[in-house]
Specification:
alpha/beta; UDP-galactose 4-epimerase, domain 1; 11 helices; Rossmann fold; 42% helix; 7-stranded parallel beta sheet; 340 residues; binds nicotinamide-adenine-dinucleotide; binds uridine-diphosphate-N-acetylglucosamine
Length: 340
């Protein structure tokens, strides 16, 4: 089937395009390149031998988005990644986030209605849970007040899809990602943070390669075994594969409800120091880091209850933390080689 992948030149989108193509789907990417590069299309082609169709425009533009759906009436479904995702920036420029993330989704839903496209996979986040009261966190855990406008856009987007599906023929699968890291084993695609990374793993690999002076570990006084905060890190390729399962589930009419929600994680929590030690092991080098104060807004610990995704989707995140860190390091090395 032909699948629209919005944000398909981005980090998770590009890995998903590869998995979709390798499962026999035809892909059309829409991305305005606000946080990615057109050259990613070439890289995808190098991996799969198939060049995905690519259109560059802003999905927050209603006219262009509806025109796209007018021209593509043969879509089997949409996987919607396109959004702004920098949590800190969303605090200082909230309207930019509400406008982009919500208008894009609304335009896509209108386009789907117009073109009779019924299946939507949406990128949500474990950020909707805040600091859960019970761990591991299940999909039925309460949604807490969002700490950032970014997190709020994910909560609102989930509601928009749920409300729309009640009155229109839209099936939705909402995927709540935990912490995606790592890169494709070919080292041809990976995460390309623009500017100074906010996330842990790109900061580690950029420090090791000499682009940053040292990693700052935000807090060692949490109520965790080594005092540093705990997250559920998931390999981006495992995450990408779940999207293929999700879209196929709806295409085959196997979804049990119009809107289904799944946690995508490994179910295992690792501390910041665990991640550093794994990196040191796979790269055979010491990382320069120091412990500093907690980062405002960080939750102490979160990891997923993955049983629902495992049982219902028949999907498992198989890759270990070492696999994730090695692939992230190989990607950083490949970027350095490409620049040389
Ligand atoms: P990314 O920034 O690498 O990819 C998003 C892509 O969308 C970019 O290529 C960007 O150019 C494009 N885009 C943004 N706004 C657009 C618009 N209006 N029109 C067209 N294209 C647009 O981000 P990612 O890490 O691949 O994240 C993908 C999705 O997953 C996002 O919705 C993000 O919020 C969500 N998510 C990511 C993480 C994570 O840790 N990376 C965690 C939870 C959820
Ligand atoms: C953050 C976002 C989350 C978003 C995700 C992906 C917040 C509060 N949450 O998750 O909504 O979905 O990114 O973009 O911003 N750390 C350090 N030093 C660093 C960087 C991070 O010690 O330089 C620590 C953090 O304190 C945290 C862990 O590493 O404990 C992971 O951080 P990060 O990669 O930024 O992801 P989250 O904060 O979990």
């Amino acid at each position: 089937m032909k699948i629209l992948v919005t944000g398909g030149t981005g980090y998770i989108g590009s890995h998903t395009v590869v998995e979709l193509q390798q499962s026999g789907h035809e892909v059309v990417i829409v991305d305005n390149l606000s946080n990615s590069y057109a050259s990613v299309v070439d890289q995808i082609e190098k991996i799969t031998g198939i060049r995905p169709a690519f259109e560059s425009f802003d999905l927050a533009d209603p006219k262009k988005t509806l025109d796209f759906f007018d021209r593509h009436r043969d879509l089997g479904g949409v996987i919607h990644f396109a959004a702004y995702k920098a949590v800190g920036e969303s605090m200082t420029e909230p309207l930019k986030y509400y406008h982009n993330n919500l208008s894009s989704l609304i335009n896509i839903l209108k386009g789907m209605q117009k073109a009779g496209v019924t299946n939507l996979v949406f990128s949500s986040s474990c950020t909707v849970y805040g600091q859960p009261d019970v761990l591991p966190v299940t999909e039925s855990a309460p949604i807490k007040e969002a700490w950032s406008p970014y997190g709020h856009t994910k909560q609102i987007s989930e509601k928009i899809i749920e409300n729309t599906s009640r009155v229109n023929e839209i099936n939705g699968i909402l995927l709540r990602y935990f912490n995606p890291i790592g890169a494709h084993e070919s080292a041809l695609i990976g995460e390309l943070p623009i500017g100074i990374p906010n996330n842990l793993v790109p900061f580690i690999t950029q420090t090791a390669i000499g682009l940053r002076d040292k990693l700052r570990v935000f807090g060692d006084d949490y109520d965790t075994p080594d005092g540093t905060a705990i997250r559920d890190y998931i390999h981006v390729v495992d995450l990408a594969k779940a999207h293929v399962v999700a879209i196929d589930r709806m295409l085959k009419g196997k979804n049990k409800k119009q809107v289904e929600i799944f946690n995508l994680g490994t179910g295992k929590g690792f501390s910041v120091l665990d991640v550093i030690h794994s990196f040191e092991k796979v790269s055979a080098q010491k990382l320069n880091y120091e412990i500093v104060a907690r980062r405002p807004g960080d939750v102490e610990k979160v990891w997923a209850d993955t049983r629902f995704a495992n049982e219902v989707l028949g999907w498992n995140a198989g890759k270990s933390l070492d696999d994730m860190m090695l692939s992230a390091w190989n990607w950083e090395l490949a970027l350095k080689k490409a620049k040389a």
